[in-house]
Design a protein that fits this description.
The complex is a heterodimer.
Chain A lengths: L8 H26 L4 H13 L2 H26 L7 H18 L5 H30 L3 H24 L20 H9 L11 H18 L1 H11 L1 H6 L4 H28 L10 H11 L4 H24 L5 H17 L5 H8 L9
Chain B lengths: L4 E10 L2 E11 L4 E6 L5 H8 L7 E6 L2 E3 L4 H6 L2 E4 L11 H6 L9 H18 L14 H14 L4 E5 L7 H16 L3 E6 L2 H7 L2 E6 L2 E7 L5 H9 L17 E11 L5 E11 L3 E5 L6 H9 L6 E6 L2 E2 L6 H6 L2 E4 L3 H5 L6 H4 L18 H14 L16 H13 L5 E5 L7 H16 L3 E5 L3 H7 L2 E6 L2 E6 L5 H8 L8
Parallel strand pairs in B: 3-8, 3-9, 6-7, 7-8, 13-18, 13-19, 16-17, 17-18
Antiparallel strand pairs in B: 1-2, 1-4, 4-5, 9-10, 11-12, 11-14, 14-15, 19-20
Classes of the chains: A mainly alpha, B alpha/beta.
Chain lengths: ~375, ~500
């Protein structure tokens, strides 16, 4: 029996996100209008800037790669009933892993070094999520509180490490020296080296395939393995999970560890694929965007990939916009992104009741 | 005489489910009107429409002959309709008085409302035998009194018509009798009562008229005096049903489960299971009777490995499984468990039926190699279970929450029985389950016994305990009050359930 407020699947995963997005864009348009710019033009610049050229696409997909990783991280924890908002800190810590292996073991040949560096990224991210997981499972410390606090700890800790450990003596910039061994080729380099084609420069690199693999792996884990079954069972109905002999403490720790490892992959794209050095604040909010991406993507890998591309578009289009229209500065772009997050995430269900009423006209006496 | 409530040609669809088909019903003022039907027959939907939770697709509601629109529960209350839900809606830390006032405070300050409510409660208590201490904390009251608070809430809001949804499900026979007395008083004072139930005996005992619903249709309305239990049962299911369970004598074998001096304490250190000892043998059904909340649930949890005993032993086929405290290991030893609360434990509402049908057994080898879970095998297994146990609709991909209570329960029983257990422990196998499914579930439990398996049955339905069990234990306040044979006198069992014992100290 369909309860009130329960909608068909396609409405839930398709129509509602689209409506939310449309409303977010309309409100953004109003904000743009208020500061005296043309919202349609602004919108066009954003779309043109991200989808209008190969370079735009490159940037869009590069941003999307980050968001897929952090979005998947949020989704895995979410399926276990956990709200991991520490993706930011986990990804940041993962950079330490990548840089330590990439610099410390640089005498190794790259086919060995690169997987090791990727593994180290995942391990550090996993470790940074494992601690809140253990605290939740064994001590009942709320995961939301601990993961958010761990973001701050990570920020301070990584800052310290870069300054006092990684920064070469005499170098002014707060960053490590260049990682040359564990190096992921960018799309541009691949095109030039292997195909002799010159394409516009963009940070897009091989990590984008890693994102595809990760998305598939998360799908497989959640829906085709016993562990995934246990994770979803715990998240959907903890009492039933306990009845079934699923140990919540164990699953909480495992799910958080996997979640942290996924967030850690973001460092692979950013540190090994683009920056080739460990630098301050390189996560840049991608961990938080992951929350919006996971919410919008309904915690499903396919949805997450689509949502990640949308946010990639907003990021890339947004920076183009701030170039093209000095009146709309970078902060304005953040406002637009914030509105999208607000409507997609926080107000996710704001339009459900109205939609429910619209699709299932409730008449009763009123129909006469 | 103008009916108190009139429903005219009410029609309601939920997607493809036609929950109410052209239902017309008139309820005479100052009467007790029963509505019976199997689960999923549409009686709750109909009452939800009357109380404003849903709105009908078409049709009309009249209150005292006047057409009204009821679009929310506050509309319903404004028209003098009150409802007592099956699951109480009380704020447990609040006092009775605060609960009664809740939502009807009418002002910035709570003081005047409370004073008014206190005076009103005194009057209601006097008029309707509804005594409750206004300053008691709602959550600490026994279930029967909590229900009384719910009735008071409705009356305080000026209800002329009171809808009660399965009101006796959680009550002791004594509390139920008191409730019926209250309902009669309400009726004598001119109130109208609508009683939703699937217990035929209650219908016969208390109602003036009774309407039978079947598959969304109102199939008959009868004067209670002019009908019989058999006729109503037949109308409900559309065929003749056996109300007594057919079973041969038991042939008990060796002991499978032995519980010795088992004690379990809750978080506050109170012994909810208190020094309980008993044994279950192969080929018999041991029934544990008792009013709900007397330690039966906790006892089941300890045996199933969900809770660890404070002291004592649970010996299953020679092994102490109490110390394992792990449901998975307990299952591996050959024990299957149909939990009391199927919605919250037995299955996962958001999972499809196929996934709910492996809950607890999802680690077994035939479902895939190693860490893999073979989706094809999971679905095929569910399809086979659904076929064998007649779960409707037989669609393994349908969400578990979309099945009716009876079919959910059949799916759970199927899952547990097909694990071929040496001992099946069953809690409330037929709570909220329709008659057709009850009959089937009982048959399967007896079949299991006849195959030489042991069954431990916990139920608050005395009829169920009496008709299924080969031996009956009665629990009260965590202790076993005594053991009786299946032919035990109902009054005697009732006394034991109330804690009055001749043979136990």
């Amino acid at each position: 029996m369909r309860m009130r407020g329960e909608l068909p699947h396609w409405v839930d995963v398709g129509l509602i996100p689209l409506i939310n997005l449309a409303v977010a864009l309309i409100v953004s348009g109003l904000v743009v209008l208020i500061i005296g710019e043309n919202p349609f033009e602004a919108m066009w610049i954003m779309i043109e800037g991200s989808l209008g050229s190969l370079k735009g696409w490159g940037y869009m997909l590069y941003y999307a790669t980050n968001f897929v990783f952090t979005g998947l991280a949020v989704a895995v924890a979410f399926h276990a009933g956990l709200f991991n908002i520490g993706g930011e800190g986990q990804a940041y810590m993962a950079g330490v892993g990548a840089a330590t292996v990439g610099l410390g073991l640089e005498w190794l040949p790259w086919p060995i070094l690169l997987p090791l560096a990727i593994f180290a990224s995942m391990a550090m991210g996993a470790f940074w999520a494992w601690i809140p997981g253990v605290l939740q499972a064994r001590r009942g410390s709320h995961i939301v509180i601990t993961t958010i606090m761990f973001n701050f700890i990570a920020a301070s800790l990584v800052g310290y490490l870069i300054n006092y450990w990684f920064r070469p003596v005499g170098k002014m910039a707060v960053e490590s020296r260049e990682i040359t061994g564990a190096y992921i080729l960018s799309a541009r380099e691949v095109a030039r080296e292997f195909f002799g084609v010159r394409i516009a420069s963009s940070p897009l690199n091989f990590s984008v395939f890693l994102a595809l693999i990760a998305a598939w792996a998360v799908w497989y884990l959640l829906w085709r393995t016993r562990l995934g079954y246990e994770i979803r069972a715990l998240g959907a109905n903890p009492a039933a999970a306990v009845y079934a002999g699923i140990r919540p403490d164990r699953i909480i720790i495992i799910a958080m560890t996997i979640s942290g490892a996924l967030a850690g992959l973001m460092a692979v794209n950013e540190i090994l694929g683009v920056q080739h050095r460990l630098l301050l604040g390189y996560v840049g909010g991608a961990g938080f965007v992951g929350i919006a991406v996971a919410l919008m993507g309904r915690s499903h890998p396919v949805g997450i990939m689509l949502a990640a591309m949308l946010f990639g578009l907003l990021y890339q289009g947004g920076s183009e916009l701030s170039f093209a229209r000095p009146g709309i500065n970078r902060d304005m772009v953040v406002v637009i992104q914030g509105l999208v997050i607000l409507f997609m995430g926080a107000l996710e269900y704001a339009f459900r009741p109205a939609l429910s009423a619209l699709l299932y006209p409730l008449g009763g006496e009123a129909n006469r | 005489m103008t009916p108190a409530i009139e429903l005219l040609r009410i029609d309601k669809r939920f997607g493809s489910v036609h929950a109410n088909k052209d239902v017309s019903l008139a309820i005479a003022p100052g009467s007790i009107h029963g509505i019976i039907g199997e689960n999923g027959a549409g009686k709750s939907t109909l009452m939800s429409i009357l109380f404003g939770f849903y709105q009908a697709d078409s049709g009309e509601i009249r209150v005292k002959g006047r057409p009204v629109r009821i679009r929310s529960s506050s509309d319903a209350i404004a028209h003098g309709i009150g409802m007592v839900h099956q699951h109480f809606m009380l704020v447990e830390p609040f006092t009775v008085l605060e609960n009664v006032v809740l939502g009807a405070e009418g002002g910035l300050l709570i003081g005047p409302a409370l004073a008014r409510a206190r005076a009103e409660l005194t009057r209601l208590a006097r008029d309707y035998e509804l005594e409750v201490d206004p300053d008691a904390v709602a959550g600490e009251l026994p279930v029967g009194l909590q229900q009384r608070v719910e009735i008071l809430k409705a009356l305080f809001r000026g209800a002329e018509t009171l809808i009660l949804d399965e009101p006796t499900g959680v009550l002791t026979p004594d509390e139920a009798r008191h409730l019926f007395r209250i309902l009669r008083t309400l009726k004598d004072q001119g109130k109208t009562v609508i009683l939703i139930t699937h217990k035929l005996r209650e219908i016969m005992a208390i109602t003036d008229r009774v309407s039978v619903m079947r598959r969304g249709e109102l199939v008959a309305t009868r004067g209670t005096k002019a009908t019989t239990v058999e006729e109503l049962a037949e109308l409900m299911v559309g065929r003749h049903v056996l109300l007594r369970v057919e079973k041969g004598p038991s042939r008990p074998g060796e002991t499978v489960l032995e519980v010795r001096n088992l004690t379990w304490k809750d978080g506050k250190g109170i012994a909810r299971v208190d020094n309980v000892s008993f044994s279950v043998r192969k080929g018999e059904i041991l029934g544990i009777a008792g009013v709900s909340g007397n330690g039966q649930s906790e006892l089941l949890d300890v045996i199933a490995g969900i809770a660890r005993p404070a002291s004592g032993q649970v010996i299953f086929e020679g092994k102490d499984i109490g110390i394992l405290g792990d449901p998975r290991h307990v299952r591996a030893e050959g024990l299957a468990h149909v939990p009391e609360d199927r919605q919250h434990r037995g299955l996962i509402g958001s999972f499809d039926a196929a996934e709910s049908a492996i809950l607890g057994w999802h680690h077994l080898d035939p479902l895939g190699k190693g860490f893999r879970l073979d989706r094809g095998k999971v679905v095929a297994r569910a399809r086979a279970l659904m076929e064998e146990f007649d779960v409707r609709p037989p669609d393994p991909l349908l969400r578990s929450s979309k099945f009716s209570g009876g079919n959910q329960q059949k799916l759970i029983i199927a899952r547990e029985i097909t694990s071929n257990p040496d001992l099946l422990i069953v809690g409330q196998p037929t709570r909220g389950v329709d008659i057709g499914a009850i009959e089937y579930i009982h048959k399967r439990i007896i079949q299991l016994r006849d195959e030489g398996k042991a069954v431990l049955l916990v139920s608050v339905e005395l009829d169920e305990i009496r008709s299924l069990s080969d031996r009956i234990l009665v629990m009260f306040a965590g202790r076993v009050m005594g053991e009786r044979g299946p032919g035990a006198d109902e009054r005697e069992l009732g006394l034991l359930m109330a804690g009055v014992a001749k043979d136990a100290a």
